[in-house]
Give the backbone structure.
Amino acid sequence: MKNGVLFQYFEWNLPADGRLWEQLARDASHLAEIGVTAVWIPPAYKADEQADEGYATYDLYDFGEFDQKGGVRTKYGTRGQLENAIKALHDNGVQVILDTVLNHKAGGDNPERFQAIQVEDGDRCKDVGEPREIEAFTDFEFPGRGDKYSSFKWHWYHFSGVDYDNITGDKGVFRILGEGKGWSQGVDGENGNYDYLLANDIDMDNPEATDEMCRWGKWAMKTFGFDGVRMDAVKHIDHNFTARFLSVVRADAGRDLYAVSEYWSQELDSLTGFIKAVGGSTDLFDVPLHFNFYEASEAGEKYDMSRLLDGSLVMADGCHAVTFVDNHDSQPDSSLQSDVQDWFKPLAYALILLMKDGYPVIFYGDYYSICHHEEEPDGNVDDVREASPHRHIIDILLEARCRYAYGEQTLLFDHCSTVGLVRHGDAEHPGSGLVMLMSNGDEGSKHIDLGPEHAGESWREFTGSIPDTITLDENGCAEFRTQGRNVAVWVRES
Ligand code: CA
């Protein structure tokens, strides 16, 4: 079996020109060539404004088809262009994973009045003041779409919280009051109860709302032929709903829909607890490992590299871990900014692409680059895009993953600066197996015993960082090396 690679095909600063789906369609064959097996596309339906990235979700049924919220297309293009991109990816054997935002809705069409009580921002279980009537944009009529695909209209009672009172102009977290209403229990405990994240928080205890989202999920998978979902913000959604949604949508599709969920927490116990709560029905992004990369990149040679995998999901539950270096939220100037410094990215990508466990993600911003908005003297703002310095090494590591990263693994996280791993190869991939070493300090080396079956072999360094070859002795042992602040990938000379 081929090693899987997921490509996150967007970054936060992409120009809002409606060209992403066209670009993705053109890029499909290239992505397949470099070893990408699935593409994670951004929220592809209409948000509260055309330039929005899609997370301020307005209408889940409008994939750039109806004249709503400033135009027909989304930030990324029209429904027709999206369908072309999906077809191009499928024609190249690449799966398409849809970013699925079910926690909240934004950009309601009309205001409604209802009873609510403000709660403390830092402790959502603590009320502030008295219950009162507030006004918020909770009426979603979808005038551009009408009743096509669904006649469901959203009202205040389908939500559990809002962040604004239109009567007084007060901002804050407001819990909506009414029979059976309250924060969901199956959510993260940060801030007392982290059900509320932003905009109009959907009430997962309201059967009308949850039934409608399940209906939508079935419709979207069938209509577009998506191969899976990336569930947004599950930390803020009752885990019972996430499990139910995946179960209902998979049963209806009658095929094996992939799922990865975003639970943005460094607490390993929270991640493993969530996986257990949803019966293992979804993978999770390995957020603790991302933060290890971030801290290692910030600390430089002071970071103890033997701890690089500590507390990570990939070590605790490798079957459910989706490993990544950076994403649209961690990139510079984003909401959860914690971008891994450039010098460390080759090391981080080498680890996630060559280790045995975890489903690795390549981030658009690392492979193609992140767009910078630069203001010119005349006041015009220009989108400046430079080629990524990491693309070359990622291409090499992808090739190494595809050709050599097979078989059993020996981890070599036994030194404060030079660490690495061995993949022992397997019979299905002749010539496979590798030694990967990295150092965050000086150049380093390790004496590695690959076994007598490798006696006398000649090994070369695959990334081009070290020109010499190494000859293994009669026992299959050799001293493998890496440059300082770099990574080396050793493979058998063919
Ligand atoms: Ca919520």
About this structure: Residues 103, 195, 197, 201, 236-237 surround calcium ion (CB under 6 Å). The two ends are 21 Å apart (CA to CA). The CA atoms of residues 375 and 381 lie 4 Å apart.
